[in-house]
Design goal:
The chain is built from 24 helices and no strands. The protein has 441 residues and is mainly α. It has one domain. Helix 4 packs antiparallel against helix 16, helix 9 packs across helix 20 and helix 16 crosses helix 19. The longest helix is centred in the last third of the chain and has 35 residues. It is globular and about 70 Å long. The mean pLDDT is 86.
Amino acid sequence: MTSLAIGFLLIGLLVVLVILGMQIAYALFGVAFLGIWLIRDNFELSLRMLELTAYSGISDYLFATIPLFVLMGLLVSVSNVGRDTFEVAEALLHRVLCGLGVATVAANTIFAAVTGVSIASAAVFTRVAVPEMERHGYRASFASGTVAGSSVLGMLIPPSLLLIIYGVLAEVSIGGMFLAGIIPGLLLAGGFIVMLMVLSVLAPRLVFTDPDAARDRRRETGLQMPLSVIAAKMTPIVLLVILVLGGLYSGFFTPTEAGGIGAFGAFVLALARRSLDRHRLWQVMKQTGVISVSILLLLVAASYYSRMLSIAGLPNAISGLVTESGFGPVGFVLFYAGIVLLMGMILDSTSILLIMVPIAAPIAAGLGIDLSQFGIITVIAVEIGLLTPPFGISVFTVHNTLNDPNTTVEQIFLATLPFIAVMLAVLLIVVWIPAVSTAFL
């Protein structure tokens, strides 16, 4: 059996192991170890490469970016920033069509710029936005679907944990990936807002329990909030975003330094709001360690897996097949995005990146595709998987947090379909118009 055939069989084995429930890190280590052993017929070489990968995999200063941004996101989450952001958005947008839905998207957009994790957004806004939307006559399923759908912005709007992981796997600039995510992220948020407004006009009964009462309620004064209160709630958040992203994009900070500054700023914000006692600080630090070590272990495993693929000659072989098939760059990207969408139905986002990026990124580079654009396409496709059954982790997070027997998982999945349609449209825009993701590079 050729090394290429072994490589393809091992990829199939990896997917099967993950579907059966094996932890993705262990599956990657096991498959890569077995692959190098079989292809080179050398057990000691496989062990030696594992040792070298484990050392070089996390010795880079760049890897400090991960725990720092994770720490920043967790500190922001315990500071009630999500609640304040939603309250301000509600006060400013209550007269707009589908005002609270738009406010949820706007609040998620701002919250994403200081957390970078979709699951955190889904959990926070389920507690904050859904009860308020129900109180104003929105259907519970629609409110839950809006929270789940807009929570995916956390994976695209920088600083995003998925963009960091992709940057490490594809060996591209993390700062560049953050720049590439700005326009697609804003385009996605804008698309969500337009979709919600159109839906409230064309299908009001899908949005409101009583459309006439909701129309009358929109004409009312609504929540009053003095400008001084709005400024007090939003100034720290805006300053934190400007501090981190402004310093990063201006070149004043490296991504690692930006993460450190952001974590310190979030710590000061949490102290100023008196939302951080010793118990909470310990919980945040412990959770930061658990998440960071898990991600770093995954990245070491992915690096080992990538070396096995290179030894098997898999990326070059697939690149040759793509070239001979006449697919071209666009055809390859669409085919790749379709595979990622299908994998999103059964695997979590990080697992998809770890499995697919080491294979696909070298092929994309060989076809002349900008790897920053390719990364944005990958992340959007992965994000869609957060909303598609049967996995749909964002939907299940909202459902479990809501804990309402009258709102089923199936209803939330149906309510997220318009968001999936918008995401597919943005995905195609990024594929056909590379400048959308490369304009700031």
